[in-house]
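A note from the maintainers: we've had questions about how concatenated examples are separated. There is no special marker in the raw files; a new sequence line simply starts the next protein. For clarity in this README we add a label.
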Amino acid sequence: MVQNISEKEALENEVEFLSKKILVLNNKLLESERAKTLFLSLVANNLNNPMSAILGMLPYLKIYNNEKNEEIFSTINGESLDLAFKIQNLITVAEIESGNLSNSYALGDIKNIVEEV
């Protein structure tokens, strides 16, 4: 009977120890999530501001009307728009992570969307 009591106490102590360890790990996880959210937000904002300036000024750089300049301008413009799209996706992820934006889903007919595009 004495052995059963000590085994029971040992199990209770182990459960208490593991419970405390789980709480510590949970707090570390929450801290990590907050750091990730802050990082995403800072990166998104620090990328978005210069990208907005570049996209705003890009149309004014088109000076010469020769074929080579058109090709360079078209490439820069296309890559800038692609980068801006990626930055906007990053900003959206940061907003979702921080809880400022919630996900929403909608049913749609993909065929109609493709035809519309």
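[label: protein 2]
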Amino acid sequence: MKFIKEDRHFSRYYDGIYILFHTGLRISEFCGLTIQDIEFEEMRIKVDHQLQRTSQMEYMIQKPKTESGIRYIPITEDIADCFRRIIINREAPRKEPMVDGYVGFLFLHKNDMPRVALHWEKYLEHIIQKYNKIYRIQMPKVTPHVCRHTFCSNMAKSGMNPKTLQYIMGHADISVTLNTYTHLKFDDAKHELLRIGSA
């Protein structure tokens, strides 16, 4: 993340990528966010829709993947600051785009239409290509879904209750969430055992 923040070209994507790594949002939910969905007073994100674009370049709003996808995601002050910067730096479009009645999308492309998953996939791809040209230790491929999975893994490692994590992730089935816990390693198990033993 430090490389992105300090890079003159890619720093403009820092806040968005930080949010992806720290909220567990699906990329289609993230792209569908509007200014109204960021509820600063309650320190939460309202998630009740996602933005898709068809192969014919038609934009559409859809309900989240499952009923469990409709949720509020709590945010910390640093995430709220990211959203504040995004809103402050958002260039006013010549004409505010509307997709199925939704307006005020946070991230607009140069043609004044909302950015979609493919845009963010390309940004991450170009960031990693540039990083790997500069540094000997190579960074693996990172996609928006990797950001989501990383968030889920980090929360599991931190000891977050599985049902709480299921809610934040918008998983319909707890087994999907619990699969993340099976990826934990020996050191995680050792740390957890010591934590419980000292309680």
